[in-house]
Amino acid sequence: MNKGIYIVISGPSGVGKTTIIEKILPRINAFYSVSATTRKLRPGEVEGEDYYFLSKEEFQKKIEEGEFLEYTIYDNEYYGTPLKPILAKLEQNYHIISEIETNGAKAIKEKYPEALLIYILPPTMNELRHRLANRPEYTQEKIEQRMKISYQELHEVSFYKYKVINDDLEKTVDTIIEIIKKEETSIKK
Ligand code: 5GP
User: What atom of ligand 1 comes closest to residue 35's alpha carbon?
Assistant: First the structure.
């Protein structure tokens, strides 16, 4: 059996990571790593599918118990990758897809140097702001806060092997599938 690839997808809030991953998953043999977070559930999100939604106390307890492969604080909330499912799936040679921000991506690259890091960029920052404004639950303050974090993040994406501009969803998905196939071939060699 071929070795699985640890695929990390990052990108600013609103760039379309979740939709892209939803479209990639049926096309490759991969396990989606569901993160834990202390932020509130957004409309349409499902516990255990989009995230494991935890209280701050529950999250901190899990940190102490060493249950996270990595974790970070983003926009004043905790986000972390549960370790156990990842170890099990890597042993079974599955690809893993993680949707995480840049600190987490760096931590994973340190632990798994062969991880495949892909950063999704918006066509323009105005387009990103527009997409964030379309989230009904986001206040103007929230939009500005997420935009500020995005600008900061964009300064530190040089360690990502691939950067893909999401100006057309289907094209973006095809490009990422091509990247994964290319990496699979280079691993087999
Ligand atoms: P959102 O609140 O928009 O779902 O996610 C905020 C940010 O947290 C996004 O950049 C997302 O990729 C990142 N994120 C989600 N889960 C994790 C995780 O487990 N670890 C880290 N480091 N970042 C995460």
Answer: 19
